[in-house]
Amino acid sequence: MVRPRWSDMDPFGHVNHANVVTLLEEARVPLLFDGALRAGLTELPKGIVVVRLAVRYRAPIVLAHEDVRVEITLRELKFASFTLDYRVHGGPSETDRLAVTAETVLAPYDVEQQRPRRLTEAEREFLAKQLDWQEPGDKSD
C-alpha cells in the first residue's frame, strides 16, 4: 500500500505519470531493499537499476486520501535481470478498481565498478521466495 500525496496530482486531479512511476518505486523499495537486508543480502540493496519501464493506464488514480494497493509479481527471473509486474488499484475503497498495470525490468548494478552484474544464487532464491515464483516448467506445488 502506498499513499499518493496532494502534490502528485496534475491539473486534471489525476495522479500524473511521473508520480505513478514514483508510487511503483515506493512499493518496490521495501521489498527489494529492506527485505533483502533482512535476509542478509547486502549487495542487492547497493544497486539495482531500471532497464525498462512500461506503464499502461486503465483508469485515473484520483487523490481520495486513501492508499492505493500495488500488487507486485515476478514474471521472469534471469541470471542478470528480473521482470516485475505491477497491478495498481486506486479509487474509493469500495470499488478498488484496477487503474494501472506496469512492468519493470531490473538489473543488479555494481556501483563501484559502474556496471551491471549477475544475480547471486542467494539473490535469485530471495526474489523467487519473496514473490512466490516458480521456475517455468516446475510442476511442484
Structure summary:
The chain is an alpha+beta fold.
Question: What topology does this entry show?
Answer:
Elements: H1 17-38, E1 48-57, E2 69-77, E3 82-90, E4 97-110, E5 115-116, H2 121-130
Antiparallel strand pairs: 1-4, 2-3, 3-4, 4-5
Describe the structure.
The protein is an alpha+beta fold and 141 residues long. It has a single domain, classed as Hotdog Thioesterase (Thiol Ester Dehydrase, Chain A). Helix content is 23%, strand content 31%. The protein is built from 2 helices and 5 strands; from the N terminus they run H-E-E-E-E-E-H. Strands 1, 2, 3, 4 and 5 form a 5-stranded antiparallel sheet that branches. Helix 1 crosses helix 2. The protein is elongated.
Order of helices and strands: HEEEEEH
**Main beta-sheet annotation:** 5 strands, antiparallel
Helix coverage percent of residues?
A: 10-25%
Average pLDDT value? Answer: 84
Any idea what the radius of gyration is? 16 Å
Say what the CATH topology is: Thiol Ester Dehydrase, Chain A
Strand portion: 25-35%
State the separation between the terminal residues, measured CA to CA.
Answer: 28 Å
Structural class assignment: alpha+beta
Number of strands: 5
Tags for this entry?
single chain, 141 residues, alpha+beta, Thiol Ester Dehydrase, Chain A, five-stranded antiparallel sheet, 2 helices, elongated
